[in-house]
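dumping this here before i forget
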Amino acid sequence: RLNWTGHDAMIITVNNEIIAHAHNTFLQSAYDHGIATGIVFVLFGICGFFRSVIYMKNKSEAYLFTLLPAVVIIAFGICGMTEWIFHPSIPIAFVFLLVQAPLLSNIEKK
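structure:
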């Protein structure tokens, strides 16, 4: 039931049975907002992961916790495969959004 424009409600009714949500963050985002948004969301996670690896390699000597963004992005991806977790009130989603901040800065090796 995915389409390019998304849907107004998360709930799906199939054969008079109500299905609350997809239990997958990536599928639910694509269902709610459209296939293009779902693709961008997945690409955002992939790019964030690769950016976190670059951040970790270039800043690991200067800062202690450079592994944190990569670990959080991996944890978000794993948790997101089994449950709809992309809402800021859910702790892993909140931390996922927070760890994006250092990845948006200019990463120069010192």
